[in-house]
Amino acid sequence: MSELSPGAPRSTSSPPGAGLPDLPARPPLPPLLPGESEAFAGLLGLIRRLRGPDGCPWDREQSLRTMTPYILEEAYEVIDSIERSDSALLREELGDLIFLLFFCAEIGREEARFTIDELLERHLRKMIGRHPHVFGPTGRLKPGEAAKQWEELKQEEGAAWRSVVDGRVNSLPALTAAYRIQEKAAAVGFDWENVNGVLDKIEEEIAELRHELSAEPSGSGPRSASDTQRHELGDLLFTLVNLARTLRVDPEGALRGSTARFVRRFRYVEERLAQAGTRPSQVGLAELDRLWEEAKARESRGLDEPLRDPPLLDPPLPEPPLSDKPPV
Asked: Which pTM value belongs to this model?
């Protein structure tokens, strides 16, 4: 489809809300706060100026496909700022992500896929329709009941039958995909009665993995896992994600935290050895274990700062030419 100018006509492919169940007129909603309307208008105006005939060459040549890696990067940076509890950083990263999302919406408008008001109105109507306990006669619900109702309403929106666990999860990180699939199944009642059932299942999966590993001859050195071992290990990981969901813990965030702790402790081990003029490969496992426990003890006393600034894992990349820079 050829690119249209920023003044492209409104898409006439479908009216806002098409394909969704009949919804009541938009209910009264809280008004915008002072300055918000101007800020949204300013953001769209900026994007249209950048993609206009006399705008930025880099911005003008971007497409929906070329923008996907930047959206993914900014989404992870938003997650990182949330986990750091850094409000100033979160403000910056959310701003970057919102800019990219509106940037993509403007590309869709230019290509006559939809208009901005059509996109937002459709989503507004969809969200109202999925919250009858707020905007309709359903009445107050508990969080679990609201989640179950959400999945049931999603089922009704499509003309053809679809599974509760259908969805675009293939592009998600594996832990997050497993979490969302389990969450969808649990919303319609397919769930453990309590956390003890999940723990029992974990022990069962470990026993099955041990059985498969014991079938291999010992002392044969490094080897590739068999298909059955890979299968059992996947089942164990899937069940561990189920435990995280039952405990309402984000498995991605929990694993990132554990990885960060490992990096911090191992750097401490390296620094202590460097002070003695040696390195990990030159000492035995007993000494590495001793220093590892020392690092853990320091953390328990709140002394988790490195002994010195750690070196960069990778050399910094050179700054690209101005015309090749991404928009954020």
From this structure: 0.57
Half-sphere exposure of 208 (CA within 13 A, CB side): 17
Half-sphere exposure of residue 11: CA atoms within 13 angstroms, side-chain side: 20
Which residues contact residue 328 at a Cβ distance below 8 angstroms, ignoring those fewer than 6 apart?
70, 74, 96, 99, 100
Tell me how far apart the alpha carbons of residues 35 and 51 are, in angstroms, rounded to a whole number: 24
**139 phi-psi bin (left φ>0, alpha ψ -120 to 50, beta other):** left
Which amino acid is residue 273, in one-letter code?
Answer: L
Helices (runs of H) and strands (runs of E) counted in the chain = 12, 0
pLDDT at 196: 95
Q: Check if the beta carbon of residue 290 is closer than 8 Å to that of residue 269.
A: no
Q: Which helix (H) or strand (E) holds 270?
A: helix 251-275
**CB atoms near residue 66 (< 10 Å):** 11
DSSP 213-243: HHTSPTT--S-PPPHHHHHHHHHHHHHHHHH
pLDDT reported for residue 218: 59
Structure tokens at 55: 């705008």
pLDDT at 36: 92
Task: Give the dihedral sign, CA 161/163/164/169.
Answer: negative
Tell me if 57 sits within 8 A of 324, measured CB to CB: no
For residues 221-241, one letter each, b for 16 or more C-beta atoms within 10 angstroms of the residue's C-beta and e for the rest, the string is eeeeeeeebeebbebbebbbb
- Band of pLDDT at residue 180, cut at 50, 70 and 90: confident
Structure tokens at 303: 């002394």
Instruction: From residue 39, give the alpha-carbon distance in Å to each of 33, 36, 99, 207, 235.
Output: 11, 5, 12, 58, 48
Q: In this structure, how many other beta carbons lie within 10 angstroms of the beta carbon of residue 128?
A: 20
d(CA 148, CA 275): 58
| DSSP conformational letter for 316 | P
* Contact assessment for residue 246 and residue 198, using Cβ atoms and an 8 Å cutoff: yes
Closest CA to 267 of 298, 235, 222, 238: 298
Give the span between the Cα atoms of 326 and 101, in whole angstroms: 14
